[in-house]
Amino acid sequence: MTDSSRPAATPRTRATLASRLAAVACWTPVALACLWIGLCVAVGPLYWKDGSIADWTGANTRYFIAATLVAAAIVAALTRIGRGRRVIPDSWRRSVFWRAWADWGRAWAADRRVARLIAAIRRAGAAVARLIVRATDRRWKIVLILAIGWLWVPTTLLSAFGADVRSQAREFSWAWNQWTGMKQPYIGFFSFVPMDIYPTAHYLWPENPTYLTDQHNIVLTLVYGGAAALSRSLTGSNDAGFVVLSAVQWMFAVGCCAAAANRFLNLPWLRPAYATRPVRYGRPERPHYLTPVDFAHPERGMVSSLTVTKLPPMDYPNRAAGAFARAATVLFFLTCPLAVFATISITKSPLFAFAFVWWFSIWYELHMTRRDDDARDRGDHDDRGLRGWSRRLRAGLRRGLRGVVRPPARTTAAFTAATCVMLVSAKYAWYIIAAQIVLALLADRRRWRTYAVALLLPTVVIHGGVAMLISSGAIIGGDAIESRAIQLQTIARAAKLAPDSIPESAKEKLEPLFNLDQMADAYYRQDADPVKSSGIQSKKVSYKWRTVTEADMDAFNEAWIEIVKANPIVAVDALLTECFGYFDPTDLPYVSMDYYVNSDYVQKTSTWIKDYNHDWRDLVAGFAKAWGSIPVLGWLTHGNLYVTLTLLVGGVEVALRRWRTLATHFPLLLLMGVMITAPANNFERHMLPVAFVFGFVCLTFWRESRAGARVDGRMSDTSDASGDTADSRTPAERSAR
After folding, report:
1. Which ranges of 85-200 would DSSP assign to H, the alpha helix?
2. What is the pLDDT of residues 500-554, one digit of tens each?
3. Cβ atoms 584, 640 nearer than 8 A
4. Are β-strands 290-292 and 302-304 bridged in parallel, bridged antiparallel, or unpaired?
5. How far is residue 423's CA from residue 691's CA, in Å, rounded to a whole number?
6. Least C-beta-crowded within 10 Å: which of 65, 149, 173, 381?
7. CA distances from residue 547 to 84, 200, 201, 274, 513 in whole angstroms, order as listed
8. 458 in Cβ contact with 450 (< 8 Å)
9. Each residue of 246-293: pLDDT tens digit?
10. Where do transmembrane segments lie in this chain (predicted)?
C-alpha cells in the first residue's frame, strides 16, 4: 500500500491521540512519585548502617518492589475513589469467596439477638455522631476543645526550646549593648561574636559594626531577643521570657487550628446571608435565625442561632463534614506529639506551621467561594481534553473581570495576617507566596485585588524591608552556604570516604573556602551543619568563613561538579542520605519534636525551668519517643508518613486533572522541596506544615470525589464516608431537637 492510499487522520483520531498524550503526561508524575517513595524506603537499611547505594543487594530490590507496589496500590484505591467507584471492584465482589462471606454475614445478622445488638450499636453510634457534630459546629467550640485539651502542655511543661532561641537572645543582647554605647569586638581573628556561631562569611559584614543577622529571621530575633532581654531585666534570667513566648505561641496555635478546622469541617460560608442580619418581617419566607443574647437585656443585641446542624444537607462538595472527619481532626491535634509539642516550641518552624494551617484554610475558602459560572471547572470532570480546556480558557477571557466576588473583610484580614506571620517566621516563605500569587492570578484572576492586598503587599513590605536593611548595613544577611547542604555533603562525603577521587583542580578551587581534612572529620550523613562549622560546641573550622571572599564562592559550583563527575556514587549517596527519611515512613526522625521538650537547654542550662517538673518533662518526652519507636503504630507520630501520603494524594489529583485544587495544594509540593534542600535529613520540624493539613487535604479529596461521582448505585449518597448521615429533617425539626 502506498502512502497516498493510507487513510487520512480524522479529527476524532487526533482528539484520541491528544487525550492519550495528556493522560500519559498526567500519570507520569504519579509513577515517578511511587518510584521515588520505593527508592527512599529501599535505601533506608543501607544508610542506617552507614553503607552506600553501591552495597545494593537483593533484599533492597525486594524492599523497593514492595514499597513501590504499596504506593501504587494506594494510588489505585484513591483513583477509584476519585472517579466515584468502590475501592474493591464489583468483579471481585461477585466472586464465590466474597459471596460466601456475604451470605454468612447476612445469616449471622438475621439472628434476632444479633439484630437487636446491631440496632443498639447503630443507635449509640448515631447518638455519638450527633454529639460530635454538635460539639464542633462552631469555631468557639473548637477553640474551647483545643484549649482545654492542650492546657496541660504550657502549665506542666512551661516551654520547649533549643539552641536557636538562645542564639537569637544572644544576638539581641549584643545589639542592645552596642546601642547603649558598650565597646565590643567585631571583626578580628581572635574575636568570636554571635555571627560566628552560625557562621556568616566576614565579607558579608558591613564596615560599621552590627550584631543583628537575618540568620534566624530578623523579626523573630527582635521579638524573641527583646522578650528575653526584658525578662533578664525583671527576673534576672531568660526563663520567664521563654515561658511567656511559649504561652503566646500556644494561644496562636489554638486560634489557627480552630479557624482552619472550622473552615474545613463546617464550611461557614454556606450559611445564608440573612442568618446574621436583622429580622425583616416583610420577608416571611426567611426564617428568623437571630435570637437575643439575653432576653432580660435586649440592649445586648442578637446572635445567629444557625449552625451546620440546623442546615439541610447539601450536595458535595458543599456538604459539612461528618462525625468521623471531625473526631479524627480533633484527635490528631490533641494527641499527636507533632502538634502537642509544637504548641510551646519556640523556634521558627512551629510558628510557620501554625500560620500555614491558617493560611491554607483561607485558600480553601477562596477555592470554594468562586462564582457559580466557574463551578463546572471545579473538578474538571467534563471536557477534560485539550479542546475543552481551550473552550474554558476562551470563555474565561470573555468574562474578564466582571462580577468580582470579594471575600469578607475579616477573611482578607486573616489572609493578610497569616501571610505576614509566615514571612517573618521562615525565609523560604516568600518563595512559596510568590509562586502562589502567579497561580492565583491564573486560576482566580477575578479576585486579584484580594491577592494583591493579602499576598503581594506583605511580601513587598516585609521581604523588601529586610532586603533594604541588609543592603543598608543595618543587619547582616544570611550566608549563601546555608542553602547548599547537598553540595556540602557531597564534598564532605568524598573527602571522608574517597579522598583520592577528588580532582586536584577541585581541591585548588575549594582551598580558599574549606579545609577538606576538617570537612572529612566533621562529616555526618544526617546533618550538614557540622560541615559548615555551625554550632558553638567543639566547632570544626571546616568552612573558612573568616577569610573567604565573594570571588572564592564563584568557584564553588565548578569544584562540586568536578567531584560529582569524578565519583557519581558519592554524589547519589550524599543526595539520598540528606533527604530519604522525609519519604520513608519506616525511618525514625533524626530530631523529633520531643527533643525540644527535654533538651539540655531546658533541663540543664536554664535557670529555674529545669527545676519545674523536671522528671515529668523527661517522662512525657520518653513516652512520645517510645510510642514513635513502635513499628507501624508509631508511624502516626512521625511527619514522614503524612508527607509520603500527601505526595501520593497530590499525584492522584494530577491524574484526575483537578487543576484548581492543585493550585491551592501546590505549596505542599514546594515545602517538600524545602525538606530535600534542608541541612538535615528527617528533621521533624520541617514536616509540621504538611502533617498539620494532611487531614484537610484528605477531606477535600473526598468531597470533590463525591461531587464528581456518578450516582449509578456503586456509591450511595445517603451516607458520608466521613461519618455523616444525610439528615432528611427540616431545619425547624432539627432545631426542636
Report:
1. 90-93, 96-110, 112-135, 139-150, 152, 163-179
2. 999 999 999 999 999 999 999 999 999 998 898 887 755 678 899 888 988 888 8
3. yes
4. antiparallel
5. 20
6. 65
7. 63, 11, 8, 69, 8
8. no
9. 999 999 999 999 999 999 999 988 876 556 666 666 666 566 666 777
10. 21-48, 60-78, 142-163, 240-261, 323-344, 412-439, 451-476, 662-680, 686-702
